[in-house]
Amino acid sequence: MIVILKTALGLLTSLFAFYYLSDVIRKRASFSSTPWPLLAGTGFITNLLDTLGIGSFAQQTALFKFFKMVDDRIIPGTMNVGNTLATVTQAFIFMSVVSVKPLTLAAMSVAAPVGAVLGAGVVAQMSRRKIQLGMGFGLLAIALIILAGLLNWFPVGGEAIGLTGGKLVLAVAMSFVFGALQTIGVGFYAPCMATVYALGMHPKTAFPIMMTATAMLMAAGSARFVKENAYDRKAAVALTVFGILGVLLAAFVVKSLPLTVMKWIVLGVVLYTSVWMFISAGRRSPEPGRNRNTRIAGPVQRG
After folding, report:
1. Left if phi > 0, otherwise alpha if psi is -120 to 50, otherwise beta: which for 55?
2. Among residues 42, 64, 203, 261, which one has the fewest Cβ atoms lying within 10 Å of its Cβ?
3. Domain for residue 294, yes or no?
């Protein structure tokens, strides 16, 4: 079953990569003026931390907003599209080195992209204010999960490497929900890890489940953002190229870091960005280049 899952992921990723990169090449004149080094550093560092289990969406959201790299409305699409190939790289690595019962891995990994496909179509059409509010609440939820982990409020996990019966049904249902939430910029990793721990699985099993489910959902759902022009092409390319480099460095060279201090820093950043999103949503600023018949595309307006 793992071989089938890898084959399906490889095929899905190949189709997405062709569609995404063709769009980038055709519309490269729409690249924003954001400096490459800033985008490259964001992709490299956040995906390195992502591979170590910290996640990347919250940090990327904070950096994109703080440095005005990407318009708020297209941050979810940019992150989903740009991080897809890096996440697929993580999935293949962790599927090969950590044992998980094939049925559990496959069921959760298939449920996530179903949720993502349904969610992406909705998010791609949402206004900037709705996305700001959605990301504000989503980041607040992620912050609470991180805090709960740091204060040891979560179950520590068990020894199981797979689920059956009602626990498996619950895990699959939660994976579907997390897949839909990912399309608005709420990362999959933290809530998935909390679920795996709560259901008594071994902590290490969270990694192949998180990586594979996220890879499947991003490969399936991100094409919708490309179709709707709901992403920043230059930022996405930087996340893709330098994100893959960060993944490889983390997986084969760094492997582990003392992450407690880093998690407290991430918690502060996530809370700050959540509040910032709520404040931005309250301003009701006009959305440049957007009317009833057009969507945001092309360069991000910077100022």
Report:
1. left
2. 261
3. no
Q: Is residue 291 part of a domain?
A: no
The amino acid that residue 116 corresponds to is A
Is 302 within a domain? Answer: no
What type of residue is 233?
Answer: R
Phi, psi of 201 (to 5 degrees): -85, 160
CB-side neighbour CA atoms (13 Å) of 181: 22
Q: In the Cβ-directed half-sphere of 202, how many Cα atoms lie within 13 Å?
A: 12
DSSP sequence for 108-175? HHHHHHHHHHHHHHHHTT--HHHHHHHHHHHHHHHHHHHHHHHTT-S----SBS---HHHHHHHHHHH
Q: How many domains does the chain have?
A: 1
Structural domain containing residue 259? 2-26+34-283
Cα(231)–Cα(233) distance, integer angstroms:
6
Residue 269 within a domain: yes
What pLDDT shows up at residue 18?
A: 97
pLDDT single digits (tens) 36-83 = 999 999 999 999 999 987 888 889 999 999 899 999 989 999 999 999
Helix (H, G, I), strand (E, B) or coil at 201: strand
Answer for the pair 268, 109: CB distance below 8 angstroms, yes or no: no
